[in-house]
Amino acid sequence: MSYAAYKMMHWPTTIDTCVSGFVTHSRSESAHLPQLHTDDLDSDWPSRRRRGGGIGPTPNLIVASGNVLELYVVRVQEEGARSSGELKRGGVMDGVAGASLELVCHYRLHGNVESMGVLSVEGGDDSRRRDSIILAFKDAKISVLEFDDSIHGLRTSSMHCFEGPDWRHLKRGRESFARGPLVKVDPQGRCGGVLVYDLQMIILKAAQAGSALVQDEDAFGSGAAISAHIASSYIINLRDLDMKHVKDFIFVHDYIEPVVVVLHERELTWAGRVVWKHHTCMISALSISTTLKQPTLIWSIGNLPHDAYKLLAVPSPIGGVLVIGVNTIHYHSESASCALALNSYAASVDSSQELPRATFSVELDAANATWLLKDVALLSTKTGELLLLTLVYDGRVVQRLDLSKSKASVLTSDITTLGNSFFFLGSRLGDSLLVQFTSGLGSSMLSPGLKEEVGDIEGDLPSAKRLKVSSSDALQDMVSGEELSLYSSAPNNAESSQVKTFSFTVRDSLINVGPLKDFAYGLRINADANATGISKQSNYELVCCSGHGKNGALCVLQQSIRPEMITEVELPGCKGIWTVYHKNARSHSVDSLKMASDDEYHAYLIISMEARTMVLETADHLTEVTESVDYFVQGRTIAAGNLFGRRRVVQVFERGARILDGSFMTQDLSFGGSNSETGRSESSTVMHVSIVDPYVLVRMADGSIQILVGDPSACTVSVNTPSAFQSSTKSVSACTLYHDKGPEPWLRKTSTDAWLSTGISEAIDGADSGAHEQGDIYCVVCYETGALEIFDVPNFNSVFFVDKFVSGKTHLLDTCTGEPAKDMMKGVKEEVAGAGRKESTQNMKVVELTMLRWSGRHSRPFLFGILTDGTILCYHAYLFEGPDGTSKLEDSVSAQNSVGASSISASRLRNLRFVRVPLDTYTREETSSETSCQRITTFKNISGYQGFFLSGSRPAWFMVFRERLRVHPQLCDGSIVAFTVLHTVNCNHGLIYVTSQGNLKICHLSSVSSYDNYWPVQKIPLKGTPHQVTYFAERNLYPLIVSVPVQKPVNQVLSSLVDQEVGHQIENHNLSSDEIHRTYSVDEFEVRILEPSNGPWQVKATIPMQTSENALTVRMVSLFNTSTKENETLLAVGTAYVQGEDVAARGRILLFSVVKNPENSQILVSEVYSKELKGAISALASLQGHLLIASGPKIILHKWTGTELTGVAFSDAPPLYVVSLNIVKNFILLGDIHKSIYFLSWKEQGAQLSLLAKDFASLDCFSTEFLIDGSTLSLVVSDEQKNVQIFYYAPKMSESWKGQKLLSRAEFHVGALVTKFMRLQMLSPSLDRSGAAPVSDKTNRFALLFGTLDGSIGCIAPLDELTFRRLQSLQKKLVDAVPHVAGLNPKSFRQFRSDGKAHRPGPESIVDCEMLSYYEMIPLEEQVEIAQQIGTTRAQILSNLNDLTLGTSFL
Q: Of 10, 142, 175, 255, which is least packed with CB atoms within 10 Å of its CB?
């Protein structure tokens, strides 16, 4: 194989850094709802509504996970506004009933974000300028991004790079640096600072508001928003200011010029020297004059503890800086200073004066902090506790610090405050949380009745079911709404003499599956034993060890959805299914309509066969009523749906339509009988139908369209041809109706004369207005030429036109006003014909079109188009008010009365734009089916989820969460021809689909999985840290190593650290009496055996380890028993005694048999063998019936007699510690923690392990595995610099030194620490394409699935040379053809990082599919152009990419 492809399948979810800022909106146009002031509301709540203004403007949240950057906006639901009617999570607090994060944009960068800052703008809450995001990347790259409304995304405003030959002097000869660049920003937005290369500070000077670079505030009339940006940059060398070891720096508040405080250490110390040398840190305040470019030292304070590591700038009016250390917190400003000791290890400089102590003991290493109020900081400790630090001050003098405990929460990696009511806990180890807080003085804010409600809101709300499933145990800690109080009494300060109370409530959480330490690949519970080909893959799931401590969990990941089946029926020849409601005249009042519409059961199921239609009644059972109803049953049905508030059913068939009331026909229509004599012409055959109450849009086979207009008062329908299409020759290739629901239809905001009704309200009779949820209806049409047009209904005025929709540009905007001229159409035709020489794009047209907007106060419509070749174009609408439009919506409201009705016809959606959304997780079909089968079926509520289902040969679920589309394929049944929702007594909010084999299945979605993730995930909390998991296939069990922290007395811990053989007594004389009685946290290890089940998984057995014994590895091994001459499958555990550096290392090998008791299906685990060995047993594997053990510096091969392991061969190859061990046939690959990889073989006849070859470089391995491609064997290794290398063994090559040295085949920078590779057989694409010739004869092809510490999952798959060369030349083209976010270069990101060690560059024989995924996102014409330049075709490239996706869809 010399070639491979690197492909990401699940992107990182661990949040490393998060910041907040007004990026998508300014403080004045905060994205909030108007405040609701109702009388009964105010009487309940004290009048202390946070400065009278509710919760104030809330900034955006920007999070970075690995190389993924996401920008969210916080959507707040006020208490009075019942938008969704369901109770939100967390109860009511401060007038807010709920808050959630909504995704604005999501980018995958070519580089990991090391640190992030927000360049904010001076100005109060009415400031109209916006903030920018500063990102810093490894070594010294800085990008400044601002939000651009016109593209609804981030745009790079400046880039600063301090790498390369010109800047080599900044490194001062060093190659490796402990940390990447660190960004901090002046709170008043005058400049930013970035610390690079440990001692160089880059000052980024912001452009002043009045300067020529920025237009004046008056420029807002044009509608363009102004973001802060950087004018220039320069470097300060901190070494010149006599600073040696910089730990942290920060900009402080309240100075006329920017002032930066630097925390640095004059001379280093270490744990063994602390007794003599302890207060080594100091802080220095430098005034940064951006004009003189010369810093001046204002003040400095020395003698700070050596373990101080973090600075926190105190907000104005107090000012100053907090220095956070492990055992102390210090406050310093020019005028005052005070300190607080956190535990008994805190020492003052001269140990004479005593530091004030906190009321409890805590250690603050690895803490994160943010400010809740101007004098209260929130600290999150390493155990996940939240602490509140209050500054007790008088004027500007801080008198003392008060620390108090608060709730327990998730283990955080970063915290940020969002406005004055929310904070966000970003976590690498658990789910990240959005928390609302409120603070009051004196008595509790919540009235007693409310308080209880908040307390148990998590308990029994049916609507909170979905949240409860996804919520990890960390949420439960925080959700209970108990109060926490801070008592502080300063006599002369009125504000702090009262009690400050804080209440918290969790509002939203982002799922995290990282860090993935290990995973196993096993069968799902509902696996289908008869499945073959690609549908067999959906039998498997990935069980991953993730999280740490109390956030530890097993994550069960499934790439494809497998619905849980209720029943199935054979039903060959089915073409479509629909469910309809039937409402008789019983309920005309609006209230009952409103209540019933959400939960009404379906009445009929209509099934269309090839030449007939079946009708079934959906009561308690499905019963066929085809004979007794007036439905058209002699031919196939094209579509069916409800009209007139569900009082009538409309059924459309090939030649006509029927309106039915229940089972009785009230009207029969036929199409095109009059204008065509034969009645059998093309124009009268219906191809496609779209139903939106009270209209039905019908597309005929010849490309003409007709509309059925309903009259709600009489419940009758009349057929019209829309005026715009009567004389027209334009042939329509796809069309749909779009209902813009709700009291404030979204599209009206985009019209230039907003808030005007477009004539639909007259068509609605008052009694039914509740059922229609009044709104506007539009008709979206695609022509054969590839243009798209939107009309309003029923007038059919054109409101939006896009010329080349089919080419898939990244942004769509209204291109022409009025009707497109006829000669313009001719021009398009010629242009397309000219392109025919390259590759025919002219037959590319849109075959299906859908525009949807799901429920939600701020939701925006999505537009989907399916092209002839199966490509799906997905667009998300957004609002952009260009300079020509009215400046703000308010103006147009006031103008509403003066504008006459005449202007309605001219109203265009001029401010409507669409941005293209990438769908790279979706595998497209090779060929689209020629039948007019509708592939998109929308659902509003299947088990509480909303989205649409795409049927066809690659069926997939598209679900919408927080305005983001999540695509989950469904592989388990192969091709699906029809799908519909079903809501009956026995199938609550379920679904029906029909497979191409002719099985009709009634199912519901599994409720244990959470779908708001790249893959559906089920989290099983363990309340401990999982370390390694393995799969026991015969019994379907998962043995798993878990460690749980246990508090133990110090003297017990000390006695375990003594070598028992030598028999030392412990000397207690250097311990004081209170220290002996202290407790110390020790990890206790156990092996749990879990059995998968639908709910929480059951622990079937637990194997405890001895004290201070760590289980390092667990594996199922198959051993050949030499006495009984049979193979046995045993559970093997390798352990190590961890007793400190004074005790010689020992370990145990344990073998267990696992049997299932057939009577009560209990698992019996019995120990078969245990033996103590020298050295830790870090890896195990079974090799041809023998057991291979890595014990300390040796690897020993044992044979199993049934009672005893006896060594038969050993090898001293790895000198340090074996990290991973892999076996293929009789070849062994082992990775060492520091000495790279070794390749050995085992010979049975001479009973010897011989070293074949090794890698001579030093490499800190993380994991290894064999990559098999046909008959070629390669060795893959990942290292701690986040690289992956592929080696091969070639003893005949001269550079391999007669075979001693492994040669490099490829190297690649993944950008995440790969902890585990798993070898899985690839599917050959020929299995899937029935009848096609086999593509490749290599069936013995294996790809490697890998998991990383960032929570990402990907694979490395072998490629044949032809495909590789094609994709590699495409990749090189795309580097220049695509604009990259933040200006990062993909080539430099993927280069091998050696961190200053000598490294000879290897070949680049890996293609990066992350880069290739851009190909489908560029416009069609450019795709064809690029394919032609590299000498291939677009179809060939897409087919290669598709085969790769299919071959690696393992789950």
A: 175
Per-residue pLDDT tens for 473-510? 334 444 333 333 333 333 334 344 445 788 899 999 99
Contact 1340, 1362 (CB under 8 A): no
Name the 3-class secondary structure at 757. coil
Q: With bands split at pLDDT 50, 70 and 90, how would you rate the model's confidence at 1139?
A: confident
Residue range 1020-1059, pLDDT digits in tens: 999 999 999 999 999 899 999 999 999 888 888 877 777 6
Q: Return the number of other C-beta atoms located less than 10 Å from residue 1362's C-beta.
A: 12
Q: Strand pairing partners for 1113?
A: 1134
Q: Is residue 1040 a contact partner of residue 1028, using CB atoms and an 8 Å limit?
A: yes
Integer Cα distance of 725 and 706 in angstroms: 9
In this predicted structure, the answer to whether residue 881 has a pLDDT above a threshold of 90 is no
**Closest of 361, 306, 352, 302 to residue 332, by C-alpha:** 302
Task: Report the b/e string of 156-174 with b at 16+ CB within 10 A.
Answer: bbbebebbeeebeebbeee
Query: In a 3-state reduction of DSSP, which class is residue 334?
Result: coil
Strands (E), 1032-1125: 1038-1049, 1079-1091, 1098-1104, 1109-1121
Residue 1118: closest CA among 1026, 1211, 1223, 1228: 1223
First to last CA, the chain: 24
Say if strands 1126-1137 and 1109-1121 run parallel, antiparallel, or are unpaired: antiparallel
Most confident range (mean pLDDT) of 121-135, 1040-1054, 1228-1242 is 1228-1242
Tally Cβ neighbours within 10 Å of residue 1209. Answer: 19
Spatial separation of the C-alpha atoms in residues 425 and 431, rounded to whole Å: 9
**Whole-model pTM?**
0.89
Please say if the pLDDT value at position 1378 is more than 70: yes
656 DSSP β-pair partners: 670
- CA-to-CA distance for 1065 and 1071, rounded, in angstroms? 14
The pLDDT confidence band at residue 580, using thresholds 50, 70 and 90, is very high
Rounded to whole angstroms, the Cα distance separating 301 from 321 reads: 11
For residue 207, the number of C-alpha atoms closer than 13 Å in the C-beta half-sphere is 20
Q: Which of 23, 64, 59 is nearest to 426 (CA)?
A: 64
Identify the DSSP state of 239.
G
Instruction: Concatenate the DSSP letters of all residues of 1015-1044 into one string.
Output: S-EEEEE-SSEEEEE--BTTTTBEEEEEEE
Task: Give exposure, 1148-1179, as e/b (b: 16+ Cβ within 10 Å).
Answer: bbbbbebebeeeeeebebeebbeeebebbbbb
Instruction: Give the residue among 814, 804, 805, 775 at the shortest CA–CA distance from 908.
Output: 814
Rg from Cα positions in the chain: 34
How many C-beta neighbours within 10 Å does residue 830 have? 8
Residue 529: alpha-carbon gap to chain centroid: 32
Angle between helix 1420-1429 and 1434-1447 (nearest 10)? 90
Q: Which pair of structure tokens corresponds to residue 961?
A: 């969460």
Model confidence band, residue 677 (pLDDT cutoffs 50, 70, 90)? very low
Asked if residues 65 and 12 have their Cβ atoms less than 8 Å apart, the reply is yes
Helices 1420-1429, 1361-1377: axis angle to 10 degrees equals 130
C-alpha 1371/C-alpha 1382 separation (Å) is: 19
448, 626, 701, 525: which is closest to 1098 by C-alpha? 525
The two three-digit tokens of residue 369, written as one number: 């902090």
Angle between helices 1361-1377 and 1434-1447 (to 10 degrees): 110
Q: What is the pairing mode between strands 798-802 and 656-661? A: unpaired
- How many of the other CB atoms lie within 10 Å of CB of 995? 21
Lateral strand order in the sheet of 259-265: 245-252, 259-265, 281-287, 296-304
